[in-house]
Amino acid sequence: MDLELLSRTLSELGEPSYRLRQVWEWTAAGAGSYAEMSNLPRALREALAQAVPFSTLTVEHEAHASDGTIKALMRTADGRPLEAVLMRYRDGRRSLCVSSQSGCPLTCRFCATGQMRFGRNLTAWEILDQALHFRRITEVDHCVFMGMGEPLMNLDSVLEACRRLPDLGITHRRTAVSTVGWIPGIDRLAADPMPLRLALSLHAANPALRSELMPVNDRYPLGDVLAACERFYERKRRMVFVEYVMLGGVNDSVGQARELAAILDPRIYKVNLIPYNPTDVGMQGSTPRAIDAFREELERHGLSATVRLTRGRDIAAACGQLAAGALSSEAAIAVGAGS
Ligand code: SAH
After folding, report:
1. CA-to-CA dists, residue 42 to 32, 47, 49, 55, 254, angstroms
2. Which of 38, 287, 299, 315 to pair with 236, CA 20 to 30 A apart?
3. Domain limits of the chain?
4. Is there a contact between 86 and 329 (Cβ–Cβ < 8 Å)?
5. Residue 337 has pLDDT above 50, yes or no
6. 146 CA to centre of ligand 1 in angstroms
7. Binding site membership of 178 for ligand 1 (Cβ less than 6 Å)
8. 56-334 shares the fold of 1-54
């Protein structure tokens, strides 16, 4: 819901200022339409339904995985595709993974989104509407900006959306912004009063290998990025998560674990090893044995390291598999087969 359009419309209609809050309270609590907002006059509900679309997004396709994960392919009003995911864990956690951009301007070699064309930055309302879509299905309590796009290249909208997430039940402490290492954004995030978490996609300690996997490393070299993360830590006193996608025979040797341990201060960083989800770029995930050996080597150096649970693999909703083109053609095939 575009809250700026809503606010303008309410004042054009001569409505008192508390109406904005009323509409938002219903929306953030998971209402499905203006019609449900029983403390608003009927005529006003009807006028709003005409003037302010209830969501800035339309859901084109929704896939349900056997583990309870739901992936939604959505489109903006101007037709840009994006994806968002709801993950439900056994311990009751309900976590959202949202997109900050349609497509991504960065070209990380292993990432499905990196292979599709960049569309544009999403607005704060388009980010919030992803979360609201799932809020209408269930209560939610965590959010990660790990969908499509680089959130720190669209930080104004990301921060505007984050300011409102607590109204949906997601506190700032349970919200994580993930970055390739976009230094100006890391510094702005550190200066912002919201206690958001920072996650850094690192993937290789060796500079040449990191540049090969993530060309952005030429612009913002890892040493400078880690210095920015350390400034973040100084300011916020919140540990930084390091994401490390495990690529078989590429970045997963015990020697490479040692190189990683050598550059990370265990008081500042926690490592999250991500089993690679194959896309169609021809890279392979590491074996479970290699992942274990890598984790053990990090722990031997005093680093805390965990292996990420994979969710939604059977619907291509897992990390780095978000590429709207693939899903929409799948959906088209499904529709075609049914007709
Ligand atoms: N641009 C930001 C936000 C995207 S987060 C960033 O890169 O951090 C997406 C996370 O999933 C990143 O850590 C990314 O490296 C990882 N990822 C990308 N492709 C993947 C794949 N195929 N399998 C597992 N993880 C992947």
Report:
1. 16, 9, 11, 20, 66
2. 299
3. 1-54, 56-334
4. no
5. no
6. 7
7. yes
8. no
Q: What is the CATH number of domain 56-334?
A: 3.20.20.70
Catalytic residue among 83, 126, 150, 297: 83
Checking if the pLDDT of 326 tops 60, the result is: no
Sign of CA dihedral 96, 97, 100, 102: negative
Q: What is the largest CA-CA distance in the chain?
A: 68
Average pLDDT over residues 55-70: 94
CA-to-CA distance for 265 and 104, rounded, in angstroms? 30
Q: Is the pTM of this model over 0.85?
A: yes
Whether the CB of 320 sits within 6 Å of ligand 1 = yes
Is 179's C-beta closer than 6 angstroms to any atom of ligand 1? yes
Task: Find the mean pLDDT for residues 150-177.
Answer: 98
Q: 1-54 is classed in which CATH architecture?
A: Orthogonal Bundle (1.10)
- In the DSSP assignment, the letter for residue 72 is E
Burial of 167 (0-12, 13-18, 19+ CB in 10 A): middle
State in Å: Cα 329 to ligand 1 middle: 22
Listed in order, strand segments (DSSP E) in the chain are: 57-64, 70-76, 81-88, 94-97, 101-102, 120-121, 142-145, 175-179, 197-201, 240-246, 269-275, 304-307
- Separation of alpha carbons 1 and 178, rounded Å: 24
